[in-house]
Amino acid sequence: MCTDCGCGITGNHLADEEHRHTIEVLEDLLHENDAQADHNRAHFDGHGVLALNIMSGPGSGKTSLLEATIKALPAGLRVAVIEGDLETENDAERIRRHGVAAVQITTGMACHLDAHMVHEALHDLPLRDVDILFIENVGNLVCPASFDVGQHANVLLLSVTEGDDKPAKYPVMVRAADHMLISKTDLLPYIEEFSVERARAAAKAIRADLPILELSAKTGRGIDTWIAWLTEAVSAQRAERRRARTYSYAPKAAR
Ligand code: MG
For 29-62, how does the pLDDT look when each residue is reduced to its tens digit (9 = 90+)? Predict the structure, then answer.
């Protein structure tokens, strides 16, 4: 599927020499991506923008969360959105209906956003007038975790429709996350198989200090706590910028 993230390499179907060469090419590519990501972060820091990378499987409610967030944001916090999908402008259009600037990146064959794609999109955004930039990554629980796009923190969504064993099955995603949101909790009464406790335990087994919040974009449950976290992160980033440092989210304590 993906042309450049290496997800098609299992190690068995390539000859040793070919395998080594492919790994080298991928390492170069990741190195180049990291350099571009640092450049993006410098853009964000220069404009005082907090950049959050929103990751999850498809259909876990990333865009719905962003819409609920936009509606609940306190006055004075300005946001913009970069949307990543293989095809369509649908999600960017949903965001623009709320009067928020949104740029759609269509990745074609690629199953994640990379730092170059995000950099391209930056030129179409009014960064000077933005406090938080949400980068909604392509719906995929594997590849987005490996590509730094210049964000200050990674937010991972797990919806109750996906199964409570997803954190155990996709540990790379959990390790990369700075904050995990269990979404669509309004559906819990209809999905007996999903246990919030099991999902939490599976994530905590990988990252004991990972903050986990249950929320529903539909009913508004948990949105106030999420907004409080965003507000706090913006303040923390501004404090770091006053010291000429780059903000990096560090959980206060296991919650
Ligand atoms: Mg979406």
Answer: 889 999 999 999 999 999 999 999 999 999 999 9
Alpha carbon 100 to chain centroid, angstroms: 18
Residues 6+ away with beta carbon under 8 Å from 143: 2, 5, 7, 111, 112
Please tell me the distance between residue 54's alpha carbon and the centre of ligand 1 in angstroms. 10
| Consecutive H or E run containing 242 | helix 223-242
Ligand 1 midpoint to CA 80 (Å): 15
Model pTM?
0.92
Task: Give pLDDT tens digits for 159-168.
Answer: 999 999 999 9
Q: How far is the CA of 113 from the centre of ligand 1 (A)?
A: 13
Domains of the chain, by residue range, sit at 11-242
The CA distance from 82 to 91, in Å, is 9
CATH number of 11-242: 3.40.50.300
